[in-house]
Amino acid sequence: MLNEIEKVLREAGLVGKGWAEATRVQGRRVAKYRRYYEGEHDVKLSRDMQDMLRSDDGFSDNYCELVVNTMADRLLVRSITSDEAGSENETDAWAEALMVRERFDALQLDVHQACIRDGDTYVLSEYDEATGEVKMHHEAAFDGEEGMLVVYDRLRRRIVVAIKVWYELSERRVNFYYADRVVKYEATGELPLDEAAGGVKGVQIVGGETVGGKLKKIGEDIPWLAGQVPVSHFKNRAGSRRVNGSSELTAVVPLQDVLNRVVTSMVMTGELNAFQIRVAKGFDPPERLAPGMWVVITGDNGVLGRDDQADAYTLEAGEVIPFIDQANFIIEQMATISLTPLPQLTGGAAGESGEAMKERKEGMIGKINRSQVRLGNAWEDLMRLAVTIQNAYGTTQVDAAAGWTVNWKPAEVRDTAEVLAKAQQMHEWGYEAEALRLLGYDGGEIKRLMEEKQAAASNAMAVLGAGLPGFEQFGVPVVEEVA
Question: For the chain, what are the domain ranges?
Answer without folding.
Answer: 2-41+62-247, 278-314, 415-483
